[in-house]
Amino acid sequence: MIDQLETFCLNILRKIKLGKLADLYEDHREGMRYLVFGVLSTIVNIVTAAFTYYVLFAKLPEEWKVNLSTVLAIIAAWIFAYVTNKLYVFASKTTGMKELFKEILSFVSCRTVTAIVEIVLMNIFVTMLQWNYLMMKIIVNIIVIILNFVFSKLIIFKKEKGEENA
After folding, report:
1. How many CA atoms lie within 13 A of 4 on its CB side?
2. Which end of the chain, N or C, is surrounded by fewer C-beta atoms within 10 Å?
3. What is the DSSP string of 58-100?
4. Are 40 and 143 in contact (CB under 8 A)?
């Protein structure tokens, strides 16, 4: 389904005289897919964070709101990102439970590093400096997306030699 939607969108770009943009996308399909699903994962993160911060945990002390909302948003984004990265971005083909467990453990380990970065930055900017929660959530997520791409490409979903063209 994703492939058909992608083809449909690329055909539209070509019809409206943006064929070079479609060609650029096709030449860098993996990175572009990561960007698209990264944006969607960030939306999952921000919407979950906003809902939990402003609605679910609205009456809690600021530090609790920041931390609980950030952690729940990270978990929601992790689930979305793992599934989409595995299936659509890196097309990971695990062949057994042991390999799948290793991949999931690697994903969670790397994402834990960026989650710590996100939590620390959110606490500094929102709890300590009292900057706007939603604005900082967006800015911090840009940093996290870049770090997550590097980890995903080089560690989690890395292709073995000879597998790059498969």
Report:
1. 1
2. N
3. TTS-HHHHHHHHHHHHHHHHHHHHHHHIIIIIS-----SHHHH
4. no
DSSP output for 103-153: HHHHHHHHHHHHHHHHHHHHIIIIIIT---HHHHHHHHHHHHHHHHHHHII
Cβ–Cβ under 8 Å, residues 133 and 66: yes
In percent, the amount of the chain with pLDDT more than 90 equals 59
162: alpha, beta or left, given left = phi > 0 and alpha = psi -120 to 50? left
User: What does the block give as tokens for 111?
Assistant: 């994402």
Residue 70 has pLDDT above 90, yes or no: yes
Instruction: Please tell me the number of Cα atoms within 13 Å of 8 on its side-chain side.
Output: 5
Q: C-alpha distances in angstroms, 6 versus 29, 37, 42, 55, 116? A: 10, 12, 20, 35, 34
The encoded tokens of residue 59 equal 């009456």
Tokens of 142: 């840009």
Return d(Cα 119, Cα 128) in angstroms, integer: 12
Query: Taking the domains of the chain in order of start, what are their residue ranges?
Result: 29-156
Rg of the Cα atoms in the chain: 18
What does pTM read for this prediction? 0.79
Average pLDDT over residues 73-79: 95
